[in-house]
What we know:
The protein has one domain. The protein contains two helices and no strands. It has helices spanning 3-63, 69-94. α1 (3-63) runs antiparallel to α2. The longest helix is centred in the middle third of the chain and has 61 residues, at 3-63. The two termini are 56 Å apart. The relative contact order is 0.08. InterPro entries: Uncharacterised_RAQPRD.
Amino acid sequence: xxxxxxxxxxxxxxxxxxxxxxxxxxxxxxxxxxxxxxxxxxxxxxxxxxxxxxxxxxxxxxxxxxxxxxxxxxxxxxxxxxxxxxxxxxxxxxx
Length: 95
């Protein structure tokens, strides 16, 4: 085998090794994408649930009597705070 043929064979072997590594990296990236999608879906579900809770609190406030609305205000404040914190966590996670 000539020096040239030996060199070509060596580079082809290294290329094969790198191609294998590239495929492993692609698989890992696909797994990460799946994990990110699951986490994103979970966070969006949490945000929607908290938003619905706040809307329910606001509906209750709207129909409450003048005497009762102050008591319900705490629930709305808590729901607002929960939603705001969940949005902030999502923002930080994806920034």
